[in-house]
Amino acid sequence: MNGHSITQYYRTHRKAIVTATSGLLYVGGWSLGHFLGLDTASAAVLVAAAVVGGYDIARTAYHEVTNRTLGIKTLVTLAAVGAIVIGEYWEAAAVVFLFSLGSYLEGRTMRKTRTALQELLEMTPDTATVRRDAKSEARSASEQPSGEGTEPRGEFVEVPARDVEEGELVLVKPGGKIPVDGTVVDGERGEGSETQRATGDPVSAVNQAPVTGESAPVPKADGDEVYAGTINREGALEIRTTGSGSDTTLERIIRRVEAAQEAQSPTESFIDRFARYYTPAIIALAVGAFAVTGNAILSLTLLVIGCPGALVIGPPVSIVSAIGNAARSGVLMKGGEHLERAGKIDLVAFDKTGTLTKGETTVADVEGFDVADDTVLELAASAETKSEHHLADAILEAARDRSTAATDGGVAVTRSDGVSADHPSVPEPDEFDVVAGKGVVAHVDGHEVVVGNSALLADRGIDIPSHVAEYVRDREERGETAVRVVRDGVVVGVIAVRDELRAAAPGVVAALRNAGIETVMLTGDNERAAAAVAGETGFTGLRERGGEAATQAVGIDGYRAGLLPEDKQTAIEAYQADGHVVAMVGDGINDAPSLATADVGIAMGAAGTDTAIETADMALMADDLERIPYAVKLSKATRWNVLENVGLAVVTVTVLLAGVLTSYVTLATGMLVHEASVLAVILNGMRLLRH
Amino acid sequence: MSDTTQFRVLDFDCPSCASTVERALSNLEGVRHVEVHYTTGRVEVEYDDSVATPDELEQTIEIQGYTPQPA
């Protein structure tokens, strides 16, 4: 080891070396006096221990004083100097060494909490392989990926990941980390390629755990979104960049998580307010004690042990650890406030469509009454052409499949292509009106076409013949949604639409129930379909609480059907009025009002959408229901953890104060217990990192 | 012109130490706004770059006995 590396080593490990040296001198000095009776030598070595360990502390103390803040280091320095002045060398050395050791350990453990998030960022590679040539550099960023061999074949060059520009094409080898946000471009698909992959077939699978917390790799096909920091597993990926550098989903999430960690929870702000009175009170007590007893060491001891260290540090460490843990599991907690409230949840309300179900609606059956099935589908498709409802998507897709079934050879049809352009058989409506939560009314080729639920038909005074009602009941009892199609006031058919339940849903509801949390389902869907899904998922209803409001609101079946968005909100208010602390799980956009009303709003699948994160208190990065029991349990654990830390701090300070005032506790033992309590709350809080 | 810079201080060892650094940075000439977070170790400084320099900010943190890292 040469001189340079020794200085380097000293610099990085200064704190540890100083603490260890001070400790050795302390033990040496104490031994000299205790075993050999060399009092003068002992005193000298103990003072040396205090000076070595105390130099850095005193230096910071000096800055505290010049910046007019009252910090613990000033108090420790005062205590040590005071002890030396009155000849208590052992006390001085002990107090300095113990404080030094304590703050060394505090710094080390806090570093772990502070770097928990940075590990996520380190997932993003520093360089990217980009296709660049004169032509591609001139390309406009908005140009659509064609994927049909018209791509300019530029050279692949390695550049810093931050310098990749929007619209540029990045290549990621199998096993490589993805350096940018972007969409997959499948160069192998289409004419002239050897593989002739069909539309929608995955090119590769990506491990998205760093962003969404999902452990299973997600298949990626042409046009799918991928995130910086995730890992490409199988095939080579070409990615059209949408964001790089600090403008990636991962970076945005981490900035949000950090802001959440820094936001004060109610407990934290209470303690801060408390400390504002507490600290001056301790100073007054110390001054008073000196005035009465004339014992300087007693008042210094009071100052040192009276510092609200553990009380101030405990709750933030618990909350920062919990938020960090959640972030690594794909759950974004918006702050300690929400976390503390989430710890009190006793009722979780679920939206049905897209939350408990996959949200991928497909047409299960089409039934024409006195007209051909295909005519029903065509009419509905025409009326729904401009609708953005998820049921409309399913109907349009089914219409497309039927009309292309005969000739389809893998034609690339994407939603943005617009249906009518590709399929002249689906005419555009002349007039078109959306009735929110009920359906659409359109004019197609001179006919009035109504597509919607029973409420819409009732509103318009349209009769439903009994054979139609029978068919509808039959489909709804299977958990399907029946869409009625009316032409010129006559019901001509019904389209049954199905949305598969997520495999995890029953387990999640059971897990919440086992954790003592009640569950309900709120849906805009009809009674029978809701009952079918609620039964399949295992919603069993609320326990009797004697509350009028909630019993009326939910009945006993654990679900409520036929709700408009504002009805969901009212339902949640009713549960709250009944004394429940309610979490609502839904998607961030349609369920925004109820998410906002609930004590804790939990948004699903939020990775790509900032709006969802805005409206919610907690956001699941993936559509992973299993994160909900986890998040609820973590919140409960955090709430306990904060209480434990506050309790421990209060008990410690009370016992120490009593001990000091009755002369049982000396400066050194006071410091030992004080530092031990600070470390105890930090370590206790950090347990939440591994919850 | 006003500029904002961030540092990461991983070795804060007490909440009052973070407040002292915050105070020291605020006292620098040209510094407009300072946020120091003990729990995350994040230091954010808004300053007038015709008066103060990032180096100066960094040195101020170092003098207090802590190690600023780029964030």
Q: What does the model show?
A:
Chain A is an alpha+beta fold and 691 residues long. Among the domains of chain A are: 3-115; 125-247, Calcium-transporting ATPase, cytoplasmic transduction domain A, CATH 2.70.150; 362-406 and 417-498, Calcium-transporting ATPase, cytoplasmic domain N, CATH 3.40.1110.10. In chain A, a hairpin with a 3-residue loop joins strand 13 and strand 14. Chain A is elongated, with a radius of gyration of 33 Å. With 71 residues, chain B is of the alpha+beta class. Chain B has a single domain, classed as Alpha-Beta Plaits (2-Layer Sandwich). Chain B contains 2 helices and 4 strands. Chain B has helices at 15-26, 54-63, and strands at residues 2-9, 31-36, 42-48, 68-70. In chain B, strands 2-3-1-4 form a 4-stranded antiparallel β-sheet. In chain B, a hairpin with a 5-residue loop joins strand 2 (31-36) and strand 3 (42-48). The longest helix of chain B is centred in the first third of the chain and has 12 residues, at 15-26. The mean pLDDT of chain B is 89. Chain A binds chain B through residues 15, 56, 59-60, 63-64, 67-73, 103-104, 106-107, 110-111, 113-115, 117-118, 258, 261-262, 309, 312-313, 316-317, 319-320, and chain B through 8, 10-17, 19-20, 23-24, 27, 37-42, 63-65.
What can be said about this structure in brief?
The complex is a heterodimer of chains A (691) and B (71). By secondary structure, chain A is an alpha+beta fold.
Secondary structure tally, helices of chain A? 27
N-to-C CA distance of chain B: 21 Å
CATH topology of the domain at 362-406 and 417-498 in chain A: Calcium-transporting ATPase, cytoplasmic domain N
> How many beta strands in the DSSP annotation of chain B?
4
In CATH's first tier, which class of the domain at 362-406 and 417-498 in chain A applies?
Alpha Beta
> Which superfamily, in CATH terms, is the homologous superfamily of the domain at 362-406 and 417-498 in chain A?
Calcium-transporting ATPase, cytoplasmic domain N
Round the Cα radius of gyration of chain A to an integer and report it.
Answer: 33 Å
Parts with pLDDT < 50 across at least 5 consecutive residues of chain A: 134-151, 190-194, 406-424
- Taking all residues together, what is the mean pLDDT of chain B? 89
Count of DSSP strands of chain A: 22
The CATH architecture classification of the domain at 362-406 and 417-498 in chain A is: 3-Layer(aba) Sandwich
Characterize the largest beta sheet of chain A: strand count, sense, and whether it forms a barrel.
7 strands, mixed
Strand content of chain B: 25-35%
CATH 2nd-level architecture of chain B = 2-Layer Sandwich
What is the percentage of strand-forming residues of chain A?
A: 15-25%
